[in-house]
């Protein structure tokens, strides 16, 4: 019996198992709650954004305020709009988000990450476009901790010969 085996396929048939089929790519399906909203959480630095996405006219509400009022800097506003513009869905979704922790820049990054995730929950076919743009990857960089004997994480105190 052992001498008859010439390949791994022969071993599989000798052991009584059929050859395994190649694994297929995972199928992504639409994930909506009972109110028809897509929900996702985004993170960046110490900020966390909870994002709800519904069909609508393109309004973006962050912590009860319009996003232009909450994020006053145009760079942060542009950052938040990026996933929607890349997906060509401008003015098609209403976005409601709550952000907490970190500063404004981290909160904008968390909101962008959460919005991208929510878009893929609402329309799974957008996953490829958003992944190629790098919007689905969480930016894991965080502030390095301060070390003892140092002024900051790496900066030393000024040297003096005296």
Protein architecture, described:
With 162 residues, the protein is an alpha+beta fold. 31% of the residues lie in helices and 18% in strands. The protein has a five-stranded mixed sheet. The mean pLDDT is 90.
Essential attributes:
alpha+beta, five-stranded mixed sheet, 162 residues, 5 helices
N-to-C span = 86 Å
Number of helices: 5
- Mean pLDDT score, rounded? 90
Strand order in the largest sheet: 1-2-5-3-4
Largest sheet, in brief, is: 5 strands, mixed
Which residues sit in consecutive blocks of at least 5 with pLDDT less than 50?
A: none
Topology:
Blueprint: H1 8-14, E1 38-44, E2 47-55, E3 60-62, E4 65-66, H2 67-70, H3 74-86, E5 93-100, H4 104-122, H5 127-133
Parallel strand pairs: 3-5
Antiparallel strand pairs: 1-2, 2-5, 3-4
Helix pairs in contact: 3-4
């Amino acid at each position: 019996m052992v001498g008859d085996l010439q390949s791994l396929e022969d071993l599989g048939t000798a052991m009584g198992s059929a050859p395994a089929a190649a694994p297929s790519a995972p199928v992504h399906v639409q994930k909506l709650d009972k109110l028809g909203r897509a929900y996702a959480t985004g993170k960046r630095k110490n900020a966390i954004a909870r994002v709800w996405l519904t069909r609508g006219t393109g309004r973006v509400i962050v912590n009860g305020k319009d996003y232009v009022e909450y994020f006053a800097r145009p760079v942060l506003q542009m950052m938040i709009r990026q996933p929607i513009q890349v997906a060509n869905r401008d003015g098609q979704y209403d976005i409601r988000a709550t952000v907490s922790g970190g500063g404004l820049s981290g909160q904008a990054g968390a909101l962008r990450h959460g919005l991208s995730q929510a878009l893929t929950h609402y329309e799974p076919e957008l996953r490829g476009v958003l992944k190629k743009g790098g919007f689905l990857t969480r930016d894991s960089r965080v502030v390095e901790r301060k070390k003892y004997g140092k002024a900051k994480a790496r900066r030393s105190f000024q040297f003096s010969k005296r």
